[in-house]
Amino acid sequence: MSEDLHQKIIDIICQEWPTPDGYLLGSYIYERLRRQGVNVTDHALNDELAELASRGRLTLTLVPHGDTPGQARAGGGVTIHDVEDDLCP
Length: 89
Fold this sequence. Notes:
By secondary structure, this protein is α+β, with helices and mostly antiparallel strands. The protein has one domain: Arc Repressor Mutant, subunit A, CATH 1.10.10. The protein is built from three helices and three strands; from the N terminus they run H-E-H-H-E-E. It is globular, with a radius of gyration of 12 Å. The model is unreliable at 67-72 (pLDDT under 50).
């Protein structure tokens, strides 16, 4: 993944976090990237979010597409539940 895409994903997370509901859907991040003209795949987004989680920068759950209602959209299998304070400036 390019450093530019990595930073765009973090920027979106930081703009939206914290949310009133206490979670942020991967599908929302995916749609924001697409509206910005970024050609990102569902797989690339999920990989980047999983990498951030493995480094302890955020907490998320991964749900295989189609296992829960409304999760069939691209990026919909990831839900962010917590973001470390130091991720966002």
